[in-house]
Design goal:
Number of strands: 12
Number of domains: 2
Mean pLDDT: 80
Shape: elongated
Strand order of the largest sheet: 2-3-10-5-7-6
Order of helices and strands: HHEHHEEHEHEHEEEEEHEHEHHHHH
Structural class: alpha+beta
Number of helices: 14
Radius of gyration: 32 Å
Length: about 425
């Protein structure tokens, strides 16, 4: 039976035992530190990143459905490789979105495409992204707020008017503090009039709308890009409860528009994704990634635990005569076992504490770096991550410290005293 006084003695002896081998103690804790820090970072960063992505998706509107181009019969990875290699899908047209607007639950749409050109104002020239959209864009994307001036109209779009709306960063790069409204800029040697400036909104997913120049879709297609197709678009719905039905209606309409046989998914040259599907997809991906990295953290903890077991076992061998002497003067098996188990728990507890602090530092540095790049992940150390990390450290301390502790407690006093 271990009394309170015995427990104090056990802890004191365990600490003194670890102090005598500081270098070994430090090296033993490294695996635990890395494993616990990984758990803290993965759980805290993973949750913050998931919330960030979900907020980014929801910023497009819970009542919206995205339609984008797709190479038939290819995976996302194959399609990305093909697009990088120069493949171009030209089947998605503005007329497709006009047809989609006839679906009962579809309220409105915007269609868009992009390109990169040199934009010039006086002696300033920058490489900018041209965001060619229909005039309905601000009606769908509620975060596209005009800070100064106005957005272009459907009439200006249809008449191929040479007007533009500047993202806030583009405006600052070209005009500094000068008023841009009513001024002319040149895009690919073509003169455009600035009619509006958008409010700063930062990075949204893989877009930075503040670095874009908004151009009427038809104007960009005919006078800049020389194309008749679009890359993607969004439709908004009247009733979000009918999302699944609306997705099917959209697919059915697009198959008809593109002369694709009904239900022949292999020939579909488009992808339809609701915000609800995107949110579920993000949740699934983040869960899988979290499990994967936690598994890696678990391996690190196991390696650290094996290291603890080996070091503790070596310590038992080195201190065999000490153990024999203590047992000869009355120390019980439980006291001896408790001492070595306490050493193991102190090592893992120390490693867990350092791991939690290290994980917190990594989270803070990551947050600062993300904010400097225009992203606010909002990551913070969560209580469940701390509890799981510390509990894991102590659990591994018990699991891997038990064997050497039992080995020490079962030593015969006579044999231990005769050990050389």
């Amino acid at each position: 039976m271990i009394t309170k006084e015995n427990l104090k003695l056990v802890v004191h002896l365990a600490i003194e035992g670890l102090k005598t081998n500081k270098g070994r103690t430090f090296l033993t804790t490294i695996g635990i530190v890395i494993g616990i820090a990984t758990i803290i970072v993965v759980m805290s960063a993973g949750r913050g990143l998931e919330n960030f992505i979900l907020n980014q998706i929801e910023s497009f509107g819970a009542d919206t459905i995205e339609i984008e181009i797709k190479i038939p019969s290819t995976s996302d990875l194959e399609m990305t490789a093909s697009m990088v290699g120069g493949a171009e899908i030209t089947t998605l047209k503005r007329d497709d979105f006009i047809a989609l607007k006839k679906i009962p639950n579809v309220d409105n749409y915007y269609a868009a495409t992009m390109g990169q050109f040199k934009s010039v104002y006086k002696n300033k020239a920058i490489r900018s992204t041209i965001f060619a959209v229909t005039a309905t864009f601000p009606e769908i994307d509620k975060d596209a707020i005009i800070q100064q001036g106005r957005f272009f109209t459907e009439r200006e779009d249809n008449s191929q008017a040479r007007v533009v709306v500047l993202g806030s960063e583009i405006k600052n790069q070209l005009f500094d503090g000068e008023n841009a409204i009513g001024k002319n800029i040149k895009i690919n040697q073509t003169t455009f009039k600035v009619i509006g400036i958008t409010r700063a909104r930062g990075n949204i997913m893989y877009f930075n709308f503040d670095k874009m120049i908004y151009v009427p879709l038809k104007t960009a297609q005919k006078q800049l890009l020389g194309v008749n197709h679009v890359m993607y678009g969004f439709v908004s719905m009247h009733d979000t409860k009918k999302t699944s039905e609306t997705v099917e209606d959209i697919k059915r309409t697009l198959r008809k528009q593109h002369n694709i046989p009904p239900n022949d998914t292999e020939k579909e040259d488009f992808r339809v994704t609701s915000m609800e599907e995107s949110i579920k997809m993000v949740g699934t991906i983040m869960f899988g990634m979290t499990l994967l990295v936690l598994a890696v953290a678990g391996i690190s903890l196991v390696v650290g635990g094996v290291g603890i077991m080996n070091i503790m076992y070596l310590s038992v061998i080195e201190r065999t005569r000490e153990i024999g002497l203590r047992k000869a003067i009355g120390a019980s098996n439980s006291i001896i076992k408790a001492q070595f188990l306490a050493e193991s728990l102190i090592i893992t507890g120390l490693g867990g504490t350092i791991g939690i602090v290290l994980g917190g530092i990594i989270i803070v540095i990551t947050n600062i770096g993300a904010k400097l790049q225009g992203y606010d992940f909002g990551m913070s150390i969560t209580l469940d991550a701390v509890l799981l990390g510390f509990a894991s450290a102590l659990l591994f301390g018990v699991l891997f410290g038990m064997y050497p502790a039992k080995k020490a407690s079962k030593l015969s006093p006579v044999e231990a005293l005769r050990y050389e």
